[in-house]
């Protein structure tokens, strides 16, 4: 893999405006509708009464009652009438709620009886810092520390494994080298998003032939994989490449303490590990000569699960429904992978996995990847 | 394709204030809010969409961007005037899905379908959500009008009973007792060359719109919502409707260059719809009353051999003239056919209601061209969609007859097949697809 955008942007803790619907928020137990925190909006055919004109930034609820005879709409406008959130088609005598994430600033609430015109407007001030709980949960800092430790452990255990792989190559032992190839990649595959954040390590160690830039030499695992499986030979070049792989990976090992890791990048990294599986492993492109894709697949899933488990105390509290889904999807994909694990710990060669089975894998990756993509927002937002 | 001069029936789909969502109109997002017409949301329960246009003359439907009401006694997308584009998808329910997770998904699907057919974004929209979260709506329909999008759901035989690993049927969701007798496993017809990967499915979604991007957007968003519960088994894009349900409009042509659907059931012919299309009370289980049975067949055309066929032979195959579409021995397309004047094995002579005791199906097919087949030939044909009150009494006998002796068989091959029970419509917000079946 390689040549992908660098993943770890610093966590953006200031939130843009979000309209939260029941689809997104039903499971969160912080529903303020009907509570003292909500802004009551009484809309009639000629008025738009707002119970308060100042609310703290963050989660803002509007409790709307249409007491008029016409169907109405309620909008929250920002500068230059930018629509922050809106609710159309509120029938006469009905109620509706708007649930939005709003940053500090000046806004206008507009009721539009008859759903036409600029509406009857009320100014409202949103006070305070940003839109989210900028004071990050201390548990997240703990999760980040634990994850850095995990990433370091993965690198530390990779070095002896890759040294053994390199030693077999330097001894000219094709069969032995083949048997050590997949295991030498496990730690790397578990923490790949962190490795990619360094920019230069990944292209040198984990690039596939079709991704090599013009004028650049192809180095790393996959070049050796081709030599071992496709060419079944070890020459001087391969021995040099084996040494270089060890050195490049030691470089990676040294860099981990300086990696920029945040709760957001952890959660996004988990999602990216599933993206890796979806785009490279499911298709059999990653290990096209050795067909050890399932070993990489397993490592990607383990790394994603580790990141999730560390964030889970916060996720389970903020979005219990999501957390429950992730628990069951991780269990399902692990159970599916277990079916392909042999007694000696290796996996079924991927060229022996039929198209219909690959679809089962693909569906499982979609089933997990989709909710996993919601983890970052669940742990850092609100 | 020619746009049809078609006036919308029924009411514009209004969103309902009780629907628990912040429904953002796609067009409002790009700053057209306040242009009441552009919002396309009239008050709930108002009538006559034409009142939304200052000009009482109906606009060409394809250009109007109009909404087709989502709520009603019957599902939209059956008797609805046929749109220009199709994206059809068949889904399989995943092994780990439960009845509860399936119901939950159907409720979410219904909400999303109501939003999209109303020209609104799914969930929290495409570009306004939390920066750390992927947007709920995939976004490619932002700023596009509703484009007469209809989204129609159907349930396949395998949802009710699926063959298990030991070959024994399994009732996965406690629905076996509710399987309509009419929802048969279609028999094999002579000449079928069905690809299992293009056939069957536990569920289907038919998305039709005048804009292909809107139709694809609908399938894509439902597939995404369904992840973890269902996955796409196969899908089909279609263009250039091959049958119209609007007899006053110009009859469209299929890829063989012949007018198709001259004698189709009109979407406004309530008597014929009741007789031939809608399942009536007592026909089968109550949950299907007001619904219809859909047969989907992917029919590959041997385009290249057809194109080197003489005009006389082509016309003999159909029993109609190529230019006008007139039945043999008559002058005009809509003249009553004299079946005896046609070759006995011509398509029309065999398929016409007069030759089948008045049997009629509502055809709603589309042309397709899915690239080439690697042998230098277009992978093209007709994606045949037919709705009927009882498949056993309609498509099956008709196709048995055609498969046996239709002259057209030399130039076509059925390569995909599926059968679905499409329930009655969702009548109001808060109801959901399959409620009568699962409820």
From TrEMBL, chain A:
<dbReference type="InterPro" id="IPR034981">
    <property type="entry name" value="Imelysin-like_EfeO/Algp7"/>
</dbReference>
<comment type="similarity">
    <text>Belongs to the EfeM/EfeO family.</text>
</comment>
<dbReference type="InterPro" id="IPR008972">
    <property type="entry name" value="Cupredoxin"/>
</dbReference>
<dbReference type="InterPro" id="IPR018976">
    <property type="entry name" value="Imelysin-like"/>
</dbReference>
<feature type="domain" description="Imelysin-like">
    <location>
        <begin position="143"/>
        <end position="375"/>
    </location>
</feature>
<dbReference type="InterPro" id="IPR028096">
    <property type="entry name" value="EfeO_Cupredoxin"/>
</dbReference>
<dbReference type="GO" id="GO:0042597">
    <property type="term" value="C:periplasmic space"/>
</dbReference>
<dbReference type="Pfam" id="PF09375">
    <property type="entry name" value="Peptidase_M75"/>
</dbReference>
<feature type="signal peptide">
    <location>
        <begin position="1"/>
        <end position="25"/>
    </location>
</feature>
<feature type="domain" description="EfeO-type cupredoxin-like">
    <location>
        <begin position="16"/>
        <end position="126"/>
    </location>
</feature>
<dbReference type="InterPro" id="IPR038352">
    <property type="entry name" value="Imelysin_sf"/>
</dbReference>
<dbReference type="InterPro" id="IPR053377">
    <property type="entry name" value="Iron_uptake_EfeM/EfeO"/>
</dbReference>
<dbReference type="InterPro" id="IPR050894">
    <property type="entry name" value="EfeM/EfeO_iron_uptake"/>
</dbReference>
<protein>
    <submittedName>
        <fullName>Iron uptake system protein EfeO</fullName>
    </submittedName>
</protein>
<keyword id="KW-0732">Signal</keyword>
<dbReference type="Pfam" id="PF13473">
    <property type="entry name" value="Cupredoxin_1"/>
</dbReference>
From TrEMBL, chain B:
<keyword id="KW-0732">Signal</keyword>
<keyword id="KW-0349">Heme</keyword>
<feature type="region of interest" description="Disordered">
    <location>
        <begin position="1"/>
        <end position="22"/>
    </location>
</feature>
<dbReference type="GO" id="GO:0020037">
    <property type="term" value="F:heme binding"/>
</dbReference>
<keyword id="KW-0560">Oxidoreductase</keyword>
<dbReference type="InterPro" id="IPR006313">
    <property type="entry name" value="EfeB/EfeN"/>
</dbReference>
<dbReference type="GO" id="GO:0004325">
    <property type="term" value="F:ferrochelatase activity"/>
</dbReference>
<feature type="compositionally biased region" description="Polar residues">
    <location>
        <begin position="1"/>
        <end position="12"/>
    </location>
</feature>
<feature type="domain" description="Dyp-type peroxidase C-terminal">
    <location>
        <begin position="251"/>
        <end position="426"/>
    </location>
</feature>
<dbReference type="Pfam" id="PF04261">
    <property type="entry name" value="Dyp_perox_N"/>
</dbReference>
<dbReference type="InterPro" id="IPR006311">
    <property type="entry name" value="TAT_signal"/>
</dbReference>
<dbReference type="GO" id="GO:0033212">
    <property type="term" value="P:iron import into cell"/>
</dbReference>
<dbReference type="GO" id="GO:0005829">
    <property type="term" value="C:cytosol"/>
</dbReference>
<protein>
    <recommendedName>
        <fullName>Deferrochelatase</fullName>
        <ecNumber>1.11.1.-</ecNumber>
    </recommendedName>
</protein>
<feature type="domain" description="Dyp-type peroxidase N-terminal">
    <location>
        <begin position="75"/>
        <end position="239"/>
    </location>
</feature>
<dbReference type="GO" id="GO:0046872">
    <property type="term" value="F:metal ion binding"/>
</dbReference>
<dbReference type="InterPro" id="IPR011008">
    <property type="entry name" value="Dimeric_a/b-barrel"/>
</dbReference>
<keyword id="KW-0575">Peroxidase</keyword>
<dbReference type="InterPro" id="IPR048328">
    <property type="entry name" value="Dyp_perox_C"/>
</dbReference>
<dbReference type="GO" id="GO:0030313">
    <property type="term" value="C:cell envelope"/>
</dbReference>
<keyword id="KW-0408">Iron</keyword>
<dbReference type="Pfam" id="PF20628">
    <property type="entry name" value="Dyp_perox_C"/>
</dbReference>
């Amino acid at each position: 893999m390689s040549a992908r955008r660098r993943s770890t942007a610093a966590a953006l803790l200031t939130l843009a405006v979000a309209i939260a619907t029941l689809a997104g928020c039903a499971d969160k137990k912080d529903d303020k509708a009907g509570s003292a925190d909500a802004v009551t909006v009484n809309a009639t055919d000629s008025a738009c009464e707002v119970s308060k004109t100042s609310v703290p930034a963050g989660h803002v609820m509007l409790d709307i009652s249409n007491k008029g005879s016409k169907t109405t709409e309620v909008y929250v406008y920002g500068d230059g009438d930018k629509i922050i959130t809106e609710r159309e088609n509120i029938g006469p005598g009905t109620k509706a709620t708007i649930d939005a994430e709003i940053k500090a600033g000046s806004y206008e609430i507009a009721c539009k009886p008859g759903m036409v015109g600029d509406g009857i407007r009320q100014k409202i001030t949103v006070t305070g810092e940003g839109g989210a709980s900028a004071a990050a949960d201390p548990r997240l800092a703990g999760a980040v520390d634990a994850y850095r430790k995990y990433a370091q452990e993965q690198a530390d255990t990779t070095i002896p494994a890759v040294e053994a792989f390199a030693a077999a190559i330097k001894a000219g032992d094709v069969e032995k080298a083949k048997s050590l190839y997949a295991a030498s990649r496990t730690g790397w595959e578990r923490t790949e998003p962190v490795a990619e954040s360094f920019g230069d390590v990944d292209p040198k160690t984990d690039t596939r032939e079709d991704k090599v830039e013009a004028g650049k030499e192809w180095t790393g695992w996959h070049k050796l994989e081709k030599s071992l499986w496709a060419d079944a030979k070890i020459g001087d070049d391969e021995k040099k490449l084996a040494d270089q792989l060890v050195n490049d990976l030691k470089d990676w090992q040294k860099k981990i303490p300086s990696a920029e890791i945040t709760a957001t990048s952890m959660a996004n990294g988990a999602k990216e590990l599933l993206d890796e599986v979806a785009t490279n492993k499911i298709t059999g492109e990653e290990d096209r000569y050795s067909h050890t894709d399932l070993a990489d697949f397993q490592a990607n899933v383990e790394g994603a699960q580790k990141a999730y488990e560390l964030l889970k105390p916060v996720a389970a509290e903020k979005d219990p429904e999501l957390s429950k889904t992730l628990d069951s999807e991780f269990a399902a994909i692990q159970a599916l992978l277990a079916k392909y694990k042999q007694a000696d710990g290796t996996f079924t060669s991927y060229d022996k996995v039929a198209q219909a089975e690959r679809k089962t894998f693909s569906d499982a990756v979609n089933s997990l990847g989709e909710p996993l993509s919601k983890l970052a927002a669940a742990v850092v937002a609100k | 394709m020619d746009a049809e001069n078609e006036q919308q029936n029924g009411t514009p789909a209004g969103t309902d204030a009780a629907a628990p969502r912040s429904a953002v109109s796609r067009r409002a997002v790009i700053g057209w809010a306040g242009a009441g017409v552009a919002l396309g949301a009239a008050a709930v329960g108002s009538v006559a969409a034409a009142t939304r246009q200052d000009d009482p003359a109906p606009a060409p439907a394809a250009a109007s961007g109009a909404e087709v009401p989502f709520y009603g006694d019957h599902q939209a997308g059956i008797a609805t005037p046929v749109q220009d584009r199709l994206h059809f998808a068949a889904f399989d329910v995943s092994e780990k899905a439960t009845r509860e997770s399936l119901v939950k998904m159907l409720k979410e699907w219904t909400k999303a379908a109501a939003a999209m057919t109303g020209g609104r974004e799914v969930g929290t929209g495409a570009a306004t959500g939390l920066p750390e979260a992927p947007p709920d709506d995939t976004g490619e329909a932002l700023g596009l009008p509703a484009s007469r999008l209809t989204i129609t759901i159907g349930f396949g035989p395998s949802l009710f009973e699926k063959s298990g690993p030991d070959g024994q049927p399994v009732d996965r969701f406690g629905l076996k007792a509710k399987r309509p007798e009419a929802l048969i496993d279609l028999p094999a017809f002579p000449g079928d060359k069905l690809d299992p990967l293009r056939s069957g499915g536990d569920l289907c979604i038919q998305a039709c719109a005048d804009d292909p991007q809107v139709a694809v957007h609908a399938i894509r968003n439902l597939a995404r919502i369904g992840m973890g519960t269902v996955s796409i088994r196969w899908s089909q894009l279609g263009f250039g409707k091959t049958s119209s349900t609007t007899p006053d409009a110009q009859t469209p042509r299929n890829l063989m260059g012949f007018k198709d659907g001259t004698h189709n059931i009109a979407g406004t012919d309530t008597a014929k719809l009741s007789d031939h299309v809608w399942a009536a009370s007592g026909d089968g289980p109550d949950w299907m009353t007001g619904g219809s049975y859909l047969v989907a067949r992917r029919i590959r055309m041997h385009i290249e051999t057809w194109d080197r066929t003489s005009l006389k032979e082509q016309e003999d195959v159909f029993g109609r003239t190529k230019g006008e579409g007139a039945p043999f021995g008559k002058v005009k397309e809509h003249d009553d056919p004299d079946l005896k004047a046609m070759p006995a094995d011509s398509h029309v002579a065999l398929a016409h209601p007069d030759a089948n005791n008045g049997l009629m199906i509502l055809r709603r097919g589309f042309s397709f061209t899915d690239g080439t087949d690697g042998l230098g030939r277009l992978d093209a044909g007709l994606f045949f969609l037919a709705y009927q009150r009882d498949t056993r009494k309609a498509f099956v006998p008709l196709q048995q007859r055609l498969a046996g002796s239709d002259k057209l068989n030399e130039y076509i091959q059925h390569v995909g097949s599926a059968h679905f029970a499409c329930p009655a419509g969702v009548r109001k917000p808060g109801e959901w697809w399959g409620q009568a079946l699962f409820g």
